[in-house]
Amino acid sequence: MTSSELFDAAVKAAEKSYSPYSGFSVGAALLTSDGKLFTGCNIENASYSLTICAERTAVFKAVSEGYKKFSAIAVAGSNNSDFSTPCSPCGACLQVLGEFCGDDMKIVLADGEHFLSEFFPLRFSKENLK
């Protein structure tokens, strides 16, 4: 799957967003190492801390289906259906990605390809627990 196709899948996932409070729709498309695609969208809640991001929705869906190796994720976000401005993952989503992915995990945004190491160079990991 190309980065462009992955990003298009993220945009399509954003269309399912439930974001009545912020008005900011986010979609994510997560590609497993063996080519399976999982999508997610942000789902807001009136009790704001219970909101979940699109990226974590996609990761949790994949993990709940037995997948734990990922090669890429695309993230698309907008408050007006124009997904041309990059929308990077938040810190919580980067931490969750870091649980399953190495520094070379590809993150596709509207401005092109990036890597997890660019956004999250010093993440907390299981090595910190020793």
From TrEMBL:
Family, similarity comment: Belongs to the cytidine and deoxycytidylate deaminase family.
Cross-referenced SUPFAM superfamilies: Cytidine deaminase-like
Catalyses which reaction(s): cytidine + H2O + H(+) = uridine + NH4(+); 2'-deoxycytidine + H2O + H(+) = 2'-deoxyuridine + NH4(+)
Domain of life, source organism: Bacteria
Protein name: Cytidine deaminase
Organism: Ruminococcus flavefaciens 007c
InterPro entries, per the entry: APOBEC/CMP_deaminase_Zn-bd (IPR016192), CMP_dCMP_dom (IPR002125), Cyt/Deoxycyt_deaminase (IPR050202), Cyt_deam_tetra (IPR006262), Cytidine_deaminase-like (IPR016193)
NCBIfam families per UniProt: cyt_deam_tetra (TIGR01354), PRK05578.1 (NF004064)
Keywords, ordered alphabetically: Hydrolase, Metal-binding, Zinc
Keyword field contains Metal-binding: yes
Gene3D superfamilies assigned: Cytidine Deaminase, domain 2 (3.40.140.10)
Membrane-spanning segments: none
Binding of Zn(2+), residues: C53, C90, C93
Limits of the CMP/dCMP-type deaminase domain: 1-127
Function of the protein: This enzyme scavenges exogenous and endogenous cytidine and 2'-deoxycytidine for UMP synthesis.
Cofactor(s) the record lists: Zn(2+)
Active site: E55 (proton donor)
Molecular function GO labels: cytidine deaminase activity; identical protein binding; zinc ion binding
Any one GO CC term of the record: cytosol
Pfam families, per the entry: dCMP_cyt_deam_1
Upper taxonomic lineage: Bacteria, Bacillati, Bacillota, Clostridia, Eubacteriales
EC code: 3.5.4.5
